[in-house]
Amino acid sequence: MRGIKKLDIFMVRQFMLLFVAAFFICQFVLMMQFLWRYVEELIGKGISMEIMAKFFWYMGLTIVPQALPLTLLLSSLITFGNLGESSELTAIKASGISLMKAMRSLIVVAVLTALCSFYFQNYIGPNANLKMMQLLISMKQKSPEMEIPEGVFYGGIPGSNIYVQQKDMESGKLYGIMIYRRTASWEDQQIILADSGMLQSTADKQHLLLSLWSGEWFENMQSQQLGGTATVPYQRQTFVTKQLLLDYDGDFNMTDANLLTGDARNKGLEQLVRDRDSLSLAYDSIGREYYTMARRHYFAVGKASKRDSLTAVKRAQQVKMHPDSLFDDLSDERKKQAVNYAQSRVQSHLSELSFNQMVIKDGDRNIRIHGLEAINKFTQSLACLIFFFIGASLGAIIRKGGLGVPVIVSVFVFIVYFILDYSGTQMAKDGVWSIWFGKLMATAILAPLAVFFTYKANNDSAVFNMDAYRTFFMKLLGLRLHRHISSKEVIIEDPIYQTDIYYLLGINRTIEDYNKEHKLLRLPNPIKVFFRPGDDHVVSIISQVLEETIDDLTNTNDRQILSYLNRYPILAENAHTRPFRKKWLNIVTGLILPVGLFFYLRMCRFRLRLHKDLSHIRQNNDLVIARIAEKFPPKIVTDENLEGMALINELIHKRKQQN
Question: Does the pLDDT of residue 145 top 80, yes or no?
């Protein structure tokens, strides 16, 4: 028990050092990614360091819940990767302590981190996000001369809309200027065109001084017209240089926080649930009111119109007139008025319905956002646990420490989680998916992966053994595998050369008898292949004995024998026979002509390949036997004393009895 406690302390100490370092790294990376979105709004605004420090502080607090899952993933990967690379994890398992028992102290740390994440999201995060958005909006309004974009009308200055074709960032000059000014009313508009200009704040920061060069001034003076003249006067001026003084408060004024309280990101869980219910009730009542109005107005109008139409039709029938002739008898002016009136009524109703639909759609989206933010507080906390188990299990499987492989794996897992979570959130916001499905999609996909990797790591499974996957797919596709045998630095036991010679001679005799019996160069009978039972055990036995002999000869220090061993082909034991072991599968394959033809041609190809491999094995056996006889002279071997042949025959007999 005391040893386990010491192990828990050791694991926590190893983990926490990396956790703290990884947290600051992840926090910095996420803050830089977040900062790039608003760099244009922050640079060159003359904002004091105190305001910037507050902005970065609140930004850091809002990013903490996002940084914690990535931190757990990276730190657990590095921790268990270091333990596996230094064989400490192997020593822990060799002492009888399972991986889950070694992880239990870190599981407690991960649970506490998840609770801290929920606390940040529910209490600290909403207030920090409110303060950050308040500062961000205030910063955008701090210096409009730097905020004016190119090629877009800018309305950040009260009473004016400014369009600039090009802007020189070094000199501050504006080119291709067009200004729309609103004075007393919409009837008094001023349009100013200028070739170039410059916008600067005054010393008291209460006004903006706009200097213009080479332009024209157009002013509508409808409110100043004299008497009842029909002509609307206007004023036009051409100027070489002109200065305008615009009212604008350039001091840093904090935006009213009440304007941002409706944002779901600025609310805790309790407030989200309460406001979501309130919004649902409010928009339900609005929807019912719209329905009542539509029913009362459109249905009443429809009934009245229908009643009037029926009366007009009956009247026309009494005088034996077609209803359309009532419209045809009207004058052109009356026809135009009737059509325009009908179109205006239809357009008015359509506009009203479109506006009502927009209100209801915006309300539904707002309700969905509140629901998503409420679920997000739980999913991000749960992501801490999921990422921990993924990182710990992958670290124990990969067993690579440092910042190389762990960083690559962490970034890959985090990107997959981010894409799934972002896609599900957007689809849920738009109403394409339900709120629960969209927000829980990423968790539902990664949670089984965490369980799978943890199970494999606890059972020492080689999930990421690339050689095993490569061998499997090469066998599946019928590609040839090659041997890579090299000399050993330390040899504990030398090969038993006498026995190896017996086995190689026995393999040669068995191959000779096999070729006489099976005739591999002839086409096989399709009836025997697909519709009759029978397996070929001889090739399996040859492969088994050959592999055991090669394994024994790898302990030699003779380089020429090792080069001969690398020449041995790896036999495909069953590819030259029927496709499947099950009789009914072979029958079905034979009855389906295209599939059966494919497997038949494949089998013919492997029969030809097996013939070449067996011939190559016989030639290579002769070379190995000659080299052994030259380098390590054995006893005299005769055909009457082939123990290897007897062993092979015995193995073949046992294999047939087992099947």
Answer: no
